[in-house]
């Protein structure tokens, strides 16, 4: 618990006792369920605190209270659940294509008493059919290349909404390859923020703003965003 508090304090992210307890319970659930099926290769307590909790939560600085957001390919809940713990005014939809992970996410939300979070067994392109331009923000961490992620995320965003892609250090090629997708889908990169996670690991946030409506034919189905990026 002290490690989590120390890490977040260094980044000027205040956590009260209840939030700290939620992170500890979350970590316990990850380790428990990781024995049943693969959630993460990171199982050291301190590494979970740095590489999952802190890394995820740092995206909170781009978000406003009461915003509605979607996490694409949520997996074990990163980055959405640490962000939700950090700012509990947010309304979140967590999407994942594996039912076992969705069940885990729902268990986490129930155990942590997280309100206004829906956990759905859906792919982003399937969810988009009935949820175009619904969200203020979208998140994705360690899912796909930027061009693919843009096709998943931008159709879900309101004009003026933002997409935050969690990336490593080397992002220039991804950004270059995504120029066509940005143009077609109505996005604009507003910042590429590089930083050292806990003073060690090189990380980046690519922040994309939706500046115009996305043509209604997107996102394409049949896994085309991944297999044949724009």
Taking all Cα atoms into account, the compactness measure Rg is 17 Å
Proportion of strand residues: 15-25%
Largest sheet at a glance? 7 strands, mixed
**Topology, number of strands:** 7
Structural class, from secondary structure content? alpha/beta
Query: Number of DSSP helices?
Result: 10
The backbone outline, from C-alpha atoms, is: globular
Spatial order of the strands forming the largest sheet: 3-2-1-4-5-7-6
Which percent range fits the helix content?
A: 25-40%
Give the second-level CATH assignment, the architecture: 3-Layer(aba) Sandwich
- On the 0-100 scale, what is the average pLDDT? 94
**Poorly predicted tracts of residues:** none
Overall number of structural domains: 1
Reported by name, the CATH topology is Rossmann fold
H/E series: HHHEHEHEHEHEHHEEH
Q: Please, what is the CATH homologous superfamily?
A: Vaccinia Virus protein VP39
How far is it from the N-terminal to the C-terminal residue, by CA?
A: 44 Å
**CATH domain class:** Alpha Beta
Q: Can you put this structure into words, describing what you see?
A:
The chain has 230 residues and is an alpha/beta fold. It has a single domain (56-227), classed as Rossmann fold, CATH 3.40.50.150. Helix content is 39%, strand content 24%. It contains ten helices and seven strands. It has helices at 2-10, 17-34, 45-57, 80-86, 99-112, 124-127, 146-153, 172-177, 179-185, 224-227; strands spanning 68-72, 91-96, 117-121, 135-141, 157-167, 187-197, 201-210. It has a seven-stranded mixed beta sheet with strand order 3-2-1-4-5-7-6, with helices on both faces. α2 runs antiparallel to α5 (99-112) and α7 packs parallel to α9. It is globular and about 45 Å long.
